[in-house]
């Protein structure tokens, strides 16, 4: 069973959190509440999240400060942050949000469909990355097993075929997602993330091809960045 992605919702007003949950419930993912920047940082210590929806105006640690802490941590620096704000901001205020590491900046009241669509993109990217890590882990196991059990070519070939089939499914999904992003004129950050995912998939495909009989020794397999 595919594990659900976690989405972190950060807002000091319970009614706003309830509204976000109502909008995003259709995505059928795990929604995690945080009523302050401090509570959000605590949640990020133990759980992995696909995307963070972060309110700008909060008492104590505001959204900008919270984002700065998130981006300083190696574990969380790559999590996409979507800022939500009720402030009638100008260009300087928007620039501050992007400078803090946000991938998007949405003013309240926002269009529920647009917000759900934007979050869905980052959830899809997160799930594809999880699948990619799984394929990489299986590949490492194959390499280690190949060194220890070189006298078992049939089992090795079977595992290679299974890995190749799984990778093909991820490649197909990633290609469809990239096409959707291009068709929808999506955010530059989402497009760049999708391109990075496709590059990693290409590297993994080359690694699998290098393990095929007659393709050379396993030691020639390129590393994954």
TrEMBL record:
Q: Name one Pfam family in it.
A: Response_reg
- Positions modified as 4-aspartylphosphate? 55
Q: Which domain of life is it from?
A: Bacteria
Q: Which SUPFAM superfamilies match?
A: CheY-like
Which regions form coiled coils? 160-187
Keyword set, alphabetical order:
Coiled coil, Phosphoprotein
Keyword set includes Phosphoprotein: yes
Domain called Response regulatory: residue spans: 6-123
List the SMART domains.
REC
Q: Which PANTHER family match?
A: RESPONSE REGULATORY DOMAIN-CONTAINING PROTEIN, STRESS RESPONSE REGULATOR PROTEIN 1
Protein name, entry field: Response regulator
- Species source reads Streptomyces virens
- Organism ancestry: Bacteria, Bacillati, Actinomycetota, Actinomycetes, Kitasatosporales
């Amino acid at each position: 069973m595919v594990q659900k992605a976690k989405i972190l919702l950060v807002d000091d007003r319970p009614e706003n959190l309830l509204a976000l949950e109502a909008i995003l419930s259709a995505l059928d993912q795990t929604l995690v509440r945080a009523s302050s920047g401090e509570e959000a940082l605590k949640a990020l210590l133990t759980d992995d999240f696909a995307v963070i929806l972060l309110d700008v105006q909060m008492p104590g640690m505001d959204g900008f400060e919270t984002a700065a802490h998130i981006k300083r941590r190696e574990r969380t620096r790559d999590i996409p942050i979507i800022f939500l704000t009720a402030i009638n901001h100008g260009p300087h205020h928007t620039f501050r949000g992007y400078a803090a590491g946000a991938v998007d900046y949405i003013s309240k009241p926002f269009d529920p469909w647009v917000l759900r669509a934007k979050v869905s993109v980052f959830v899809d990217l997160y799930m594809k990355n999880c699948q990619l890590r799984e394929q990489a882990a299986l590949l490492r196991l194959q390499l280690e097993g190949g060194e220890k059990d070189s006298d078992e070519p049939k089992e090795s070939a079977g595992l290679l075929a299974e890995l190749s089939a799984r990778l093909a499914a991820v490649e197909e999904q990633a290609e469809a997602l990239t096409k959707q992003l291009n068709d929808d004129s999506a955010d530059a950050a989402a497009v760049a993330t999708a391109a990075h995912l496709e590059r990693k998939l290409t590297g993994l495909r080359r690694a699998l091809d290098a393990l095929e009989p007659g393709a050379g020794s396993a030691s020639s397999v390129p590393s994954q960045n």
